[in-house]
Amino acid sequence: MAANAITVSRLREKLRELANQRRRFGYRRLHFLLRREGVMINRKNSRRLCREEGLAVRRRQSRKRALCTRAPAPVLALPNQRWSLDLVHDQMASGRRFRVPNVVDDVTRECLAAVPDLDLRTPRRARAGPADRPAGQAGMIVSDNGTELTGNAVLAWCGQIGVEWHYIAPGRPMQNGFCEIFNRLT
User: Fold this and answer.
1) How far is 99 from 84, CA to CA, in rounded Å?
2) Going residue by residue through the chain (186 aa), what tens digit of pLDDT does each one get?
3) 131: which DSSP letter?
């Protein structure tokens, strides 16, 4: 019995050593490495030992989702109650890509801003927002939850000017339909 305890403890040490060398290997691959080194062990036993030692492969973190609220579309009656924002991208003949953020008023269907640029980084995009227009300021801006529109600079800019920022549900472009139709027509 004592001989089995020693071999199990050595086996645990060997499993920990292999798991530290190869962090993305699960119990099946660790079992294969043990068998290659001459350790004869049942796959079920290697699974049990890996589980007891806490050697499970950690799951990769998923992409961070938007932090703001997703609200249903309100009934619109006046201009500047709700603006829709979406990005359009294209490529020049030279191969350089450019992006154009389009801002559309949902009531008047008017394009409030379209700022083409080769490199729209988040702080510059936030400063190029249409809230400084003489016509007024939006009560709410709605956009998709892409990585370019969920940055901290955009959220800080909204806090500075006092505008609510809402995101549509993932995979539902019809919730931002006014801007999508505008982008399709241009």
Assistant:
1) 16
2) 444 545 888 999 999 998 888 888 888 889 988 888 888 889 999 999 999 998 888 777 777 665 555 556 566 678 888 888 888 888 889 998 888 888 888 888 888 888 787 776 654 555 555 544 445 677 788 887 776 676 677 777 777 878 888 887 777 777 777 777 777 776
3) G
